[in-house]
Amino acid sequence: MKKSLFVSLLILLFFQEVKSQNHSISIETELDKYFQATQNKDWKAVIDMINPKVFSFTAKEQMVQLYSQMESDAGMEMNFTEMEILKIRKGVEWRDTTYVPVDYKITLIVDLNPSRYQDPDMLKSISTGFEVVYGGQDISFDREQMSFTIRAKSTLIASSLLNSEQWYFGEYKPTDPITKLIFPEEILKRLEQGWN
């Protein structure tokens, strides 16, 4: 009896590990598309891959338009480089969804339009804004090039309905109210505690 129980347990663990590896492969494939769309500034494709719960606060079309106008309206050209997955953690099932944290790194270069950004107070305000958004990350400003370089490490939460491999992504920002609205409290608590 004990031997039979032990064998059953080993089989169960084996299938859970296979399932976890399949999640990793599928998430990595989707993340490659997500990163590529971000680098190409294909905002429609990016927004199609973000967590759909976001659209209960704002319309998808408005988000695409906002992202598309961001550079021209703000006078800032953004280039996303060196987007790389650092670690895909083990998935957790909660109710009808699987959640998988993905640690990644990114380099963002923001070139300012010199004709619009000469005021030192405005430059300081932009720098402060980046500090708020990317607190504790490597942020530098090249005055001659009028360019910010942000090297950041962050976490995305990949989510998919059970028995589906359609993954959506949302940025994990512990202090952002939207993070708390789109992800279950239990998942966020687990991340805060190290996801063990």
Q: What do the pLDDT scores average to?
A: 86
Supply Rg.
Answer: 20 Å
Strand content: 25-35%
- The dominant shape is globular
Total beta-strand segments? 6
Could you walk me through the main structural features you see in this protein, from its secondary elements to its overall organization?
This protein is an alpha+beta fold. The protein has helices spanning 2-39, 43-48, 60-74, 120-133, 177-182, 185-192, and strands at 76-88, 92-94, 97-112, 138-142, 147-161, 168-171. Strand 4 and strand 5 (147-161) form a beta hairpin. The chain starts with a helix and ends with a helix. Residues 2-21 have low confidence and may be disordered.
How would you briefly describe this protein structure?
By secondary structure, this protein is of the alpha+beta class. The protein contains 6 helices and 6 strands, in the order H-H-H-E-E-E-H-E-E-E-H-H.
